[in-house]
Task: structure prediction
Amino acid sequence: MSVLLLRLAGPLQAWGASARFVRRTTESAPTKSGVIGMLAAAQGLDRGDDAGLARLAALRFGVRIDQPGTRVRDFQTAHHAVTGKSMPLSERFYLADAVFVAALEGEGPFLDDLHTALRTPAHPLFLGRRSCPPALPVELGTRDSSLSPALRDEPWQAAGWYQRLRGQEPTVSLVVSREPVPGEQHGDVLRDQPLSFAAAHRRHALRSVVSTTVEVPNPRAVASRKPAARPVPHHDPFDAVEEETL
Result:
């Protein structure tokens, strides 16, 4: 078994698991549907290719929150392309300055093909919405490991300025959200298991999720330690008086 690791970082990200009319929210971490959609775009799959989507969706998924970011809200207006009529005001939420490590577990050869596709994608890659391009290369490579150890052992991917904020901590505790192994008790469910991306009948199913934490070394901890205090040299102002007396 192997794991494909992705670095998801950018000025803005939006990972919606549900939408209500003109209100478009975002989850606090990437959804499986969004990440699978990115892989499908890299491969050049058609929206109606349910067989290709099923193979991607069968991969076991997990994500680590390396830098949670800040939730921001935006209001957008639009006009109908034909009639010019104003459309309803749209309220959209984003994550600003967030960094995540996403992991997909599956057979090695298939993950190697996905890794190659991410390096030379057939279509542009986005972090949930088309207005959210990645700021850094997405692929981190494949690992000969299973999902949990891969998310635990990968170095901290947060931005340098964010790591410096926690520079006194030798390790940092990061939240991991992953699919459970068979027989493991889960704590939550999300409707982000993609069944079809076809525009006419886009469908998603419920997916079980387990939330844990991992301790990751902080590379800024050693550099941020204060240097050891130098010994104070001996100084007695009466030494000079004693020398003159002698």
